[in-house]
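From the shared-data thread, chain only:
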Amino acid sequence: MRASFRGEAKPIERLFDIAVRGETAPLISVPKTPWAPQLVQDRADVDISDPAFDFVRSIRVFEITYQQRRNSDGDCNSWGAVYMGTYGAQGDYSRRRSSISAVPTASDLTVPADCRSYWHRSVFVEWRDYEGSYGHEEVHY
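Structure, as tokens:
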């Protein structure tokens, strides 16, 4: 099922439409004067620095890998890697190394107190919508 917007779409409606349909951003931004197209590359074709778009900057993406097991000598071995991604003022995405302790409690990651075999691998995304309500989603793979 497809939905379409009637009339001129607001910037937030256009962003939603792109996200839902999986379209890529256009390469040309057409201003109100159609005879002066402007090449747009490596940036959004809308200005999202306004506080109305704070929900974009609230999105945090965690790439989580953690494993724990007891080795043949009886020692407990654990290993984990967490990367946290965020969005900047114009929607630019960046990620950096983080820690297990930075993973939000809403995640399914549960480091066992005892040393049993445990393996967790997921992408956890959290956000605050335009009304300030908290939301999250986790995909295990």
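The mean pLDDT is 83.
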